[in-house]
Amino acid sequence: MSLIDKYREVRQRTEQICQPLKTEDYVVQPIVDVSPPKWHLGHTTWFFETMILKTFLLGYIEFDSHYNFVFNSYYETLGARVIRTDRGNLSRPSVEDIYSYRKYVDKAMNELLVNDLSTELKELIVLGLNHEEQHQELLMTDIKYILGHNPLFPAYTDVPIVTMTPKEPSTWLYIPEGIYEIGYNGTEFCFDNELGRHKVYLHTFSIASQLVTNQEYIDFINDGAYSNHTYWHAEGLDWVKKNNCTAPMYWYLIDSEWHNYTLNGLQKVDANAPLCHINFYEASAFAAWKGMRLPTEFEWEAASHLFTWGQRWEWTNSAYLPYPGFAKAAGAVGEYNGKFMVNQMVLRGASVATPPNHSRNTYRNFFHPYLRWQYTGLRLAK
Predict the structure, then answer these.
(1) CATH code for 172-377?
(2) Are the C-beta atoms of 336 and 364 separated by less than 8 Å?
(3) How far apart are CA 249 and CA 254, in angstroms?
């Protein structure tokens, strides 16, 4: 696929995700971690305008000089910005304005993309496309949070969403001790945090062929594990008590039966489906309850060719840290990953919300251990 076709495909997919929304849905920000859909639409457009068009398209005129303040996410290099918690307080620019902004930038990008581009510029555009695909996943999960925390539990779509259930029981996959190479090794796109391919020594371990299911987690709940301190990290137990947590996000016990909010609305929990919407504390506690543990990100990568992955982001027991030789790029692009390498845990795989062809077994996602609004699950190791 040509670069211009890829650009059009990615940009169209973002708008397709928003198509079922009502105008009011675009503006809501229930918590700091969830951004309004219209902000995602504007921010991904701002990325192309600021990082590419202003520098590389001769004569480009900025759509609105105020948008740098509104849609800059965390780039200190690029100046002041709206505080993250205030994104939902902005009634303007309107949804209509933002769609006009997208059309304006897309027109300029199409003008740029028909030219002969340098390797440097092509790489920057590809980064922009992968950045937008990351936001597509965030957009899906943010929309689910917005609708799922509405007391009416409105459905995002009327099209039935098929739940992927394991076709066979989970088995243990044996991985022998030895030296394994970790990190991206190829010629296609990857993020800088995947680079620095290096060797690690792993002791013998086993890893589950399937993800933990909802029924397995119901057993954990029924055993009173949320109130048993022996399974929890101290910080995790504090989180449980502070939030009075007794089940995964979106779960509700109705007439002695578990229900959960899905993009089709409130439904009975599918016992055989992969567990979803748990944080690192819950994943780690469940593993301890089973007398097992979470795999490290290196164990996960070394074994990933042996099992099917991609339905849930899978928590690992690894802190998000740089690989050997990691170095931040110059300028704003250098703020993309490296500055977040503290107080976060690594997730591997992908999820049902991940855009097509936007996953690799070396892809390193990362979140704070208390977060669970993403499609997060777990795979056991021992």
Answers:
(1) 3.90.1580.10
(2) no
(3) 15
The rounded radius of gyration (Å) of the Cα atoms in the chain is 22
Spatial separation of the C-alpha atoms in residues 372 and 378, rounded to whole Å: 12
Model confidence at 74, in pLDDT bands (50, 70, 90)? confident
Helices (H), the chain: 3-18, 37-48, 54-56, 67-71, 95-113, 119-148, 214-222, 234-243, 280-289, 297-303
Domain boundaries, the chain: 3-148, 172-377
79 or 103: which leads in pLDDT? 103
CA 67, CA 184: separation in Å to the nearest integer?
35
pLDDT of residue 270: 95
What's the pLDDT tens digit per position in 272-312? 999 999 999 999 999 999 999 999 999 999 999 999 999 99
**CATH number, span 3-148:** 1.20.120
Cβ count near 18 (within 10 Å): 17
Q: For residue 201, give the nearest of 185, 184, 174, 180 by alpha carbon.
A: 180
DSSP 162: P
pLDDT value, residue 272:
95
Q: How confident is the model over 196-235, as pLDDT tens digits?
A: 999 999 999 999 999 999 999 999 999 999 999 999 999 9
3-state helix, strand, coil in the chain (%, to 5): 40, 15, 45
Mean pLDDT of the chain: 95
**Cα 104 versus chain centre, distance:** 28
How many Cβ atoms sit within 10 Å of the Cβ of residue 196? 15
> Cβ-count burial of 91 within 10 angstroms (0-12 exposed, 13-18 middle, 19+ buried)?
exposed
Q: Which two tokens stand for residue 1?
A: 């696929």
Gap between the Cα atoms of 125 and 109, Å rounded: 10
Q: Is 101 within 8 Å of 42 (Cβ atoms)?
A: yes
